[in-house]
Amino acid sequence: MTLTTESAGAAAPFAPPEAGTVVVYRGLTLFDGTGSPPRPGMSIVVDGPVIHAVVPDADVPDVLAALTDGADRPADTAADCADRARDPEADGVTGTGADAGAAAEVVDLTGHFVTPGLVDAHQHLATPPDRPAAEAVLRRLVHSGVTAVRDMADDLRQVGDLARAARVGEIPAPDIHYAALMAGPGFFDDPRTHQVTQGAVPGEVPWMQAVTDTTDLPLAVALARGTHAAAIKVYADLDADLVAAITAEAHRQGILVWAHAAVFPATPGEVVAAGVDAVSHVTLLAHEAATGPLTTYKDKPPVDHASLVTGRDERLEALFARMREQDVVLDATAGMWASAELAGDTPETSERAARNTDLAIALTAQAHRAGVQLATGTDYETAPEEPFPALYEELAFLVRHCGLPAADVLRSATLVGARAAGTDHLTGTLVPGNQADFAVFAQDPLADIDHLRTITLTVKRGHRFPRAAYTADRPQENR
């Protein structure tokens, strides 16, 4: 077909730079996410959207010389470029370096601390769909060091377009990796399922399917994959055999499975035994110690709270051992019940939130001691007027209430989050060949997790998102 007119499409002001656009981020202290201790005096050399090299500052001239081999003149040293381009008023970002030859731009991050881009492993961006609200959340996230999120089932008609717009740079946003949901038919009178299928029938759309033992699972999984979902989310009202069958078919077709930690009637142990890749909500793991049989999502039995809050329950210890052996990631959402959004405003709801918070603290700490991989999800957001996202609250909760070392929490928020999304071969660590996804802080979050709030710059796929660009439009948040 011959097109008589062609359009470049919508503007993409946040698109990744082209290969050949070389930027040196120098002078930084590097937490690379690999397990190595922080290293001062390091440089990250970025070529377009990809990390080209991670080296001590002194080695940058050799790296640039290799990149500029054949140029009209030798590449200047990083120090030479920085001296010409330095701009102390630019939040740690130094000028254009236009006269630095092919060595290109230098960003002086002396005194700053750099981590891989953060990952919120549990977001909901379209329940119900509200494009302006979703874009506001995404904009705050990417200006807070978050370079990727897992969207855990929503109206994928909108989420798919948000993911596309984020990927090509039409909007300021993290990369979005999202799930299509499967559940038993009994779940689909939940009001949320109607919110995310407006104009269609809940349970009968590719992104939200009702599944029974007569479902054509190869077709159902193929329909879900057709939404460009990164995973199937196994949610509720499915027995162990169906959870296992869905998981096996999804893996056969090359797609991940993210599950609620208890699917009702499938127990946490049965969900893990099915071979899922990640489970969500540490408090749902408590149903491994339920005092009655699991039946449906709406009829959850009590759990052995007194034993579980000790953090030494043997039933959970056995479950955590299996999760560790199978590399199942736990998206704990540990601080969710302590948040202002879910704390409750009646004595009954406040008591429920407090009991769930106690469970979350004990079980998250126990899972960490057992060697389970923890990802940092939220499942809520802070109010629109707040300057920082819920992810900062989750990381602080893990350090201050669950007793996790800050270095382990940062690893959970970077490498393990990328593993949960299935992208750890591309991001989550700052090594050559990975995407140029990282966050820059004026103060060290390992010394105080609240130093996350000193974020000055996010780099996502090589594109810079200065924090100042966010606060300039919202001066009330510049505090």
Write up what this structure looks like:
The protein is an alpha/beta fold and 479 residues long. The protein has two domains: 130 residues, Roll (Urease, subunit C, domain 1), CATH 2.30.40.10; 310 residues, TIM Barrel, CATH 3.20.20.140. The chain is built from 14 helices and 18 strands. Strands 6, 7, 8, 9, 10, 11, 12, 13, 14 and 15 form a ten-stranded mixed β-sheet that branches. Strands 1, 2, 3, 4, 5, 16, 17 and 18 form an eight-stranded mixed β-sheet that branches. A hairpin with a 2-residue loop joins strand 17 and strand 18. 52% of the residues are buried. About 7% of the residues have low confidence.
Which keywords apply here?
479 residues, 8-stranded mixed beta sheet, 10-stranded mixed beta sheet, 30% helix, 18 strands, TIM Barrel, 14 helices, Urease, subunit C, domain 1
The secondary structure category is alpha/beta
Looking at the structure, the CATH topology of the largest domain is: TIM Barrel
Q: What CATH architecture of the largest domain do you see?
A: Alpha-Beta Barrel
How is the main sheet built?
A: 10 strands, mixed
Supply the CATH superfamily name of the largest domain. Answer: Metal-dependent hydrolases
Strand residue percentage: 15-25%
Overall structural domain count: 2
Give start-end ranges of low-pLDDT stretches: 70-101
Mean pLDDT: 92
Helix content: 25-40%
Bulk shape: globular
CATH class call of the largest domain: Alpha Beta
Radius of gyration: 23 Å
